[in-house]
Write a structure and sequence with these properties.
Keywords: Hydrolase. It holds the Pfam family Esterase. InterPro entries: AB_hydrolase_fold (IPR029058), Esterase-like (IPR000801), Siderophore_Hydrolase_D (IPR052558). Belongs to the esterase D family. This is Salmochelin siderophore protein IroE. Helices cover about 35% and strands about 20% of the residues. Helix 1 runs antiparallel to helix 9 and helix 5 packs parallel to helix 7. An eight-stranded mixed beta sheet has the order 1-2-4-3-5-6-7-8, with helices on both faces. It has one domain: Rossmann fold. The chain is an alpha/beta fold.
Length: about 300
Amino acid sequence: MSHRPDRRQICRVIARLGVFTIMLLGAGNSFARPNLTPLGPNIADRGSAYYHFTVRQFDSADGRRHYKVWTAIPDKAPPASGYPLLYLLDGNAAMDKLSDDLLRQLSAGTPPVLVAVGYQTDLPFDQLARTYDYTPAHWRDRQNRGGREGGGSAAFRQLLTQTIAPQVEKGLPIDAQRRGLWGHSYGGLLVLDSFLSAPSFNDYFAASPSVAQDDFVLLKRLGAVTKDEAKGRRLHLLEGDGDLPRPGEEHRPDALAAVRVAVAELSDNGVGVTWQLFPGLRHGEMFPASLRSALLQMAEVQ
């Protein structure tokens, strides 16, 4: 029988993690600096023995952000219910991590249609655009590190669900009960925000979401979600523990504790939630590891 943490315990954990937030914002630690080496050809350029690809371009409503969206369609015939579907945030970097061996593994099960939502750049990440697109509305009134503007998740989600999705899914046999969204770091924040705000998907994969930089606002809200509110939706939280301090280092509160509390709250509320720990993996290493895990889960081969 699971133990439900009391509210005082939750408050103590969150309060301690507030100190961790300040440390993260001031220290400029390694996982805050992604690799921005220009990318070479990806699997769509090289070709696959198991999938075929289309590419589309979109613009934000205000004309300030420009998107490149890859759609990967299995060559294997769909089941009677249609293909599963998984949207991938940070699509440039996600496409760079896809290999034909991984697509072969997906094809051994029920391969999902993949929609990688990236930006019109040769870099793995468009830092200005993703900061705005992936962060929730309460970020509008503050300046992020580097002066990057935030708070545009609602506008991005509207573009994703009302413009991008209808176009990329048109004519494809999609299982309406198996639509997923995956994101890492700021993308993981967008996934949490979408789980709370938008019933457009069934499976929400939040990998190493930047909950500390969000002052734990979204994580606090998760614990109040009820079974009825989350009907038809499942949340998957994926975390590595490689960024925890080593013995002898200055003590830092364990950010994973807040995630565990949120998972316990959701589980006790009857909400479909899973938590997967990747021992030893650091923040950046969680990008490919969590992507692979989400893909295999959607294909039902893990």
